[in-house]
Structure formats: structure tokens, C-alpha cells
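pipeline: protein-struct stage 2 | run 1193 | Response regulator
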Amino acid sequence: MSLGQELAPHLPFLRRYARALTGSQQHGDSYVRAALEAIVAAPDDFPREVDARLGLYRTFQRIWASANLEGDDDDVGFGGEREGIAQARLSQVTPRSRQALLLTAMEGFTPEDAGYLIEASAEEVEQLVVDAVAEIERQTRADVLIIEDEPIIAMDLETIVRDLGHNVTGVAVTRDEAVSQALATRPGLVLADIQLADDSSGIDAVKDILAEFNVPVIFITAFPERLLTGERPEPTFLITKPFQRSTVKAAISQALFFDSATVPA
């Protein structure tokens, strides 16, 4: 099997990680593209002492760390409002902590593997995760609309949201109900299932909402690969069913991390 064939199954999830890390599909995909270009240019440098997924993420980490260390984002088309929002938060939450949080909670790496990726010990990774969650929760508070037609899942999401210190404005089970509630309450975050009670689409509900006002959205689906196809538009924040509570918490923290409404003074 060629290196390209080994890496292909992992690319959709690397794009998910990159987008959550940067808060942008465009920026995240640009970093992933740069990592792939580096692999193509120097295949002998690809880490072969670990499995393909770890090697791919390690290559990405090096590209991302180098770009942020050198401050050369503008050279590859980065920048803009969300990066400015991120910088306001990064003065208090280090990129290293956010990487540790996303790699473990969202991408499912063990603390040991995450430590390999960011060059830290497993113990350091665990502390970085604790620090990141505490600081991001302190900085971000929001009203949250949940679009979910399964009562048990909706209740679980509502508990997670409230445990993080946020307010739940409502739980919608259809497209029309979701749009109506969103327009009435103007939430600061939307958690959206894909398939709703009346066979309507959570994607269509979100499109309707975003046509009226901007709000960060986290999609929830049992089939993430259907949304991570490499075609536009794709969600910046995506979690998979059945989900871990820690994954939902990490996604909420990252979505609000880039939300201008909760930038620290």
C-alpha cells in the first residue's frame, strides 16, 4: 500500500481538527494542504516509527507550529476577523493547551500519543487539557439552541451545556421550529442534529438561521464522512454520534473560542 493510500482515510478527520484549531474551514484546509505538500516534497521525512495517522498529524503539527511561531500566516492567505478574535483569547489560553484539548477530546488520541504530537509528556498533556477547559469556560458564556429530535440525546446535550455554565434557550425538533426559536432568541451557539423529527434537515435549518444572522454552529451526526467530503461548504465544527461528553465540551469551547460576542475585554 502506498503512503497516499495509508493517509487517505485519515484526511477528513485531520481537516476536522485543523478547522477546530483555527476556527475556519479555509484556514484549516490551507494548513492541511501545506502538510500534504510537505509530505509529497519529502516523503522520506515522513515519520515511519509510528502509524500513518500519528505521522500525518505530526507533520501537520510541525507545519502549524512553524507558521504560528514565525507569524507568517499572511503569506498563505490567513488572517481576518476570526484570527483576531483568536489572538484576543490566546493571550490567556495558549495554542498548546488548545491542541492538547482537541487532540484528546475531539480526535481521540491518548495523552501519550497527543504528547508525541505536541512534544510533551502524557502528564503535561493532561494538565494542559485541564488548563484549557478551565480558561475557555471562564472566558465564554452563551445562550445555546439545541436542534435535536431524540429526547434522550437532547436531554444529555442540555445537561452538558448547562454544566459548562451556558444557558439553553430551547430544544427544537424540526426545521421550522428551529428557525422560529432562533429568530426569537438569537442564540450565541447552535448544536444541530442532521436528521430531524419530520424528516426535515438540520442542515437546512442552519442555512435558514445563518441567512438571518451569524452564529457558530456545531453539527452532530452519526456519519461525519458524509459532511467531510472535501466539497464546499463543510462544517467547521462537527462531532460524531454516539458522542463522548468530553468531545461535546471540547467542540463547544472551540466554537465559542472564535465567537466575537464573547471576546474578553
